[in-house]
Amino acid sequence: MSQQDNFGSGFVLGTLFGGVLGGIVGAVVTSRVIQDRSKPDTFRLDDSGENSPDQPSLSEEEMEIARRGLEDKIAQLNVAIDDVRQRLGGVNGHTQTSEDVGRELR
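User: That's the sequence. What structure does it adopt?
Assistant: Structure tokens below.
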């Protein structure tokens, strides 16, 4: 009988402790999310499509550098994907080309 009493009181105590701890964690996380949402994004366009006055505009040269960097990353990813595709092979040891995948999706 004493084990059942200890279980019941431990269960109630654990429930209360978990509720209090969960409430504290929830309040902290909520306050941080609210603070993060109140910060402006690093780059935002206004309704006219122009940069907002408080945001610096990117020069054509900076945009071109960023575009080239992204193209290089995409090329690296494509090479890595092709390499993995060749290593893994396809069904029955045959590799699948992108045209084959396109036909399967149609």
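DSSP finds three helices and no strands in the chain.
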